[in-house]
Amino acid sequence: MNRTANQLSLQEFLDLPDSNDHYELVEGQLRPKMSPKYKHSTLQLRLSIALNQWCEQQKYGRVRPEWGVILQRQQKDWVPVPDLIYVSYERLPQAWNEDEPCPVVPELVIEIISPGQTFGEMTEKATDYLLAGVDQVWVVDTKAQSVTIFERDSLPQTIRSNGSISNSLLPGFVLNVSDLFDIV
């Protein structure tokens, strides 16, 4: 084993046995991923359905929930497990079908703020994603009923329940934010 001061290497992390517990690799340490509660899982499902329908219509890529992605954070291996990711077929060919973490940087990462997490913590994580090469990060805030969109070359944009999400990253995709939060 190639451990440094009780730190896991990327390979050691990837070689861990499957379990019902989910972890992220952050600075060589295992960080438990919270088990989603009702509101969180409802929002994740709604976003997944909307994005998956768009993917199937446009044939641009794939959206996946809770799929670990291999990135770099502060020059160290980082394997976060975002609530959802979108990866185009341009970055990861449609024929790719391996049972492993996402091997490329996704275009879009979506994180839903869970109880016990703060918007500030998610903002910091969004910054880490952008610095790792992700084009866009959506932070979904269940309490504020809003989605804040982070992009590398612009200020964050918060869309409240009376607005909609549409942008050039997902041509033709439109999502009314109020639809996410109905009955949540």
Automatic annotation (TrEMBL):
InterPro entries from the UniProt entry: Nuclease_put_TT1808, Restrct_endonuc-II-like, Uma2
Putative restriction endonuclease domain segment(s): 10-177
Recorded superkingdom: Bacteria
Coiled-coil segments: none
Protein name: Putative restriction endonuclease domain-containing protein
Lineage, opening ranks: Bacteria, Bacillati, Cyanobacteriota, Cyanophyceae, Oscillatoriophycideae
